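Collaborator request, handled under Task 6.
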Amino acid sequence: MVSLSICIPIFNHDCTDLINRLDEQCVQSGINYEIILLDDCSSLHKEANRLLAQLPNVQYTELPQNIGRAAIRNRLAGTARFSHLLFMDCDTQIIDSQFIQKYLFAVKECNADVILGGVCYSDEMPQQPYLLRWVYGKNREERPAHERNLQPYRAFTAFNALIRKEVFEKLRFDESLKTYGHEDTLLGWQMKKENFVMTHIDNPARKIGLATNDIYLKRNAEAVENLWKIYQKIEEKNLFREDVKILKYFHILERIHIENIFYNTIRIFNNLIFKNLKSDNPNLHLLDLYKLATLCQVSLK
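Structure tokens returned to the collaborator:
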């Protein structure tokens, strides 16, 4: 029988509903399980989350300082006792009463090392200033399993992922990545290199913690810087570019030596681009241009 360690990093979010639902479904399934919570030096919702430690299968720990997205997931996995790790984000909502059962069924049927359930967003459009993050999620991230399975490794994310513990221990997240973004991209690519079997199923969790437009744009810039750090370290750059679309476009600009021209051209229109991205009808192609220009800028430093 599958045994499950549910690993959830917490940062400034009340996880009460999420943990209670997961705990209830695990009890109903009859499996051996644990829910491991690590608070990454939050300033909000600590009192509510501390009460979760009263549940018999929940471990709750507060870290004295923030260690970042990669390191905290490695630490969660290092604490885990059971054969399969279910990574989830704290700003998640369980929308299916069979969420855990679907994962358990997939483990038996798929013979996969990594199983990803997917992400969904509310059908109700949020108000400003949260619209850009929602539009991106609905249009780029919320995809059925049959689409994600066309290129399974490109769609890897630790937002809602079941990984065999022995597989994760061979790779782990790169803790040199201290800021936001692309630690999942690197791990997914490493899984592809090692020929671990990855499959996607339709078992989404709902993303409910939406960043504001300003925070989301800042995170995108941080993620591009992280991606450049990763790209610089990787020896098989040609292979890595094939799995990361923004790097493919950057390489075209680099080959014809116009990355500086492209960056300076886009910079002229930055105010117009930001005005659109913060509007009620954001154009995601403009977001793509902004990220590509940021990559050009970072490469020129």
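The cover message to the collaborator said: "Strands lie at 4-10, 33-39, 58-62, 84-88, 92-93, 114-116, 119-120, 160-164, 198-200, 205-207. The longest helix spans residues 213-233. Please let us know whether this matches your experimental observations."
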